[in-house]
Amino acid sequence: MQYISTRGQAPKLSFEEAMLSGLALDGGLYVPESWPQLSADVIRSFAGQPYEEVAYTVMRPFVGETFTDVAFREIIAKAYSAFAHEARCPMVQLAPNHWLLELFHGPTLAFKDVAMQLIGQMFETALGRAGKRVTIVGATSGDTGSAAIEAFRGLDAVDVFILYPHNRVSEVQRRQMTTPAEANVHALAVDGDFDDCQARLKDMFNDHTFREEVSLAGVNSINWARVLAQVVYFFTSAAALGAPDRKVSFTVPTGNFGDIFAGYVAKRMGLPIEQLVIATNQNDILHRTVATGAHKKQGVQPSISPSMDIQVSSNFERLLFDIYDREGAAVSALMDELKSGGFVLSQGALEKLRAEFSSGRCSEDDTLAEITAMRKRTGEVLCPHSAVGVFVAEAERSLDVPMVTLATAHPAKFPDAVEKATGLRPDLPQHMSDLYERAERMTRAPNDLGALQQIIRERRS
Ligand SMILES: *Cc1c(COP(=O)(O)O)cnc(C)c1O
After folding, report:
1. Binding site membership of 255 for ligand 1 (Cβ less than 6 Å)
2. Ligand 1 center to residue 109 CA distance, Å?
């Protein structure tokens, strides 16, 4: 399997190269040259299998020669051994024909662990055998950073720098990034919002001299390997509900479009998905895009679901590539327009978008009300992101098709919103119950490319 850039001007890469480089040299994102197909029989066989088995079968065709079968099985086994639930990504039922897919049983309590734990093991194996060292730089609205630090802390071949928006992540998120004591971990509190952090990260990747100098590697959701890891749970959950003999729908609380794009990939691979619903908070650029065809930035309004406070949704570029018939030049032109505010989809592209996705938006008040209502009706305590998903799913679903809403974080990761909605402060799971007592370590940094590059040069080992 080879990987091509969404902008059509970068060399084709292997899985290993695409994983280690993140962003393509032409500024695009890597996507597989074609979508591998899984037969109905194979999908049917997933019901009842351990998560790791399904993960192996779903991801194997994408990995090519990068890992042997044996090595890849070991990587998967190690990646999910730190999960606190034997099913890894279990489901609970919320209502007749509505399920919640719990993706928060990893070490940092958000779905980002599902991909990041795997990436940590893949990097370690690939770099270790090549005798290489890389500098991983990531931008986070909170959860990616903690998941990356947790996945890479203490590894020999990696320094990890995480840019997060100062004062705009929850205390649990911040502490998960600032309390690991390992010398290869560096949390940078940037004076700006998440889009600033993401823009500085992109600038670093586009500075080819710097990129070479520090052996820059990226693990943001633009990294193809992250999207790939997330494809797996669409298969495990759908098969548990009767796929491929029964269609299943999904609602995904969406920010950077990585998680829902993974659902789209599952569909391209043969999983019969009826609806893929994009759920946004008040930062609703993607909902407006589906509704109107205009993809226009409006600035970020901080919300109680901060991991979705995004206006530039990086992985949307991967979908654009497909709905513009894989023409890199068309995607490049749209991305240029986006820099100065936005673009309008062509009629053909909009029709293709609407054929694959529907969407909904959840206000701050509705998010809180959904947390309150779900606790009352089912006893389930939702994190605010998952509540956005459940609210939109209830509005969009057709009652005769099973709906799976992705629960993207544990409620204890966002205790203030949950307490406001329920009157109860959710407890942290036991393995991190001393998080509030651990010493913190971070560096304040300006929203400035040169200054950030200097910090990275000085700190990396
Ligand atoms: C990252 C994140 C999201 C958004 O996922 P994307 O892949 O960026 O769309 C939603 N909820 C939580 C808790 C997250 O950490």
Report:
1. yes
2. 12
Q: Is 321 left (phi over 0), alpha (psi -120 to 50) or beta?
A: alpha
Q: Give the model's pLDDT for residue 300.
A: 87
pLDDT at 390: 98
Higher pLDDT, 401 or 309: 401
Counting Cα atoms < 13 Å in the Cβ hemisphere of 415 gives 11
Strands (E), 29-78: 30-32
Q: Are 7 and 26 in contact (CB under 8 A)?
A: yes
CA angle 294, 295, 298 (to 5 degrees): 110
pLDDT class for 99, splitting at 50, 70, 90?
very high
* Cα distances (Å, whole numbers) of residue 453 to 164, 369, 448: 15, 43, 9
Neighbours of 86 (CB within 10 A): 10
pLDDT (average), residues 207-223: 90
Between CA 123 and CA 134 the distance in angstroms is: 9
Selected catalytic residue, list 12, 78, 112, 132: 112
* 339 part of the active site: no
Burial annotation 324-345 (CB, 10 A radius, 16+ → b, else e): beeebebbbebbeebeeebbeb
Q: How far is the CA of 259 from the centre of ligand 1 (A)?
A: 7
pLDDT tens string 272-295: 999 999 999 999 999 999 999 999
| Residue 56: other Cβ atoms inside 10 A | 19
Q: What angle do CA 81, 84, 89 make, to 5 degrees?
A: 85
- CA within 13 Å, CB half, 405: 28
CB atoms within 10 A of CB 28: 23
Q: What angle do CA 264, 230, 314 make, to 5 degrees?
A: 65
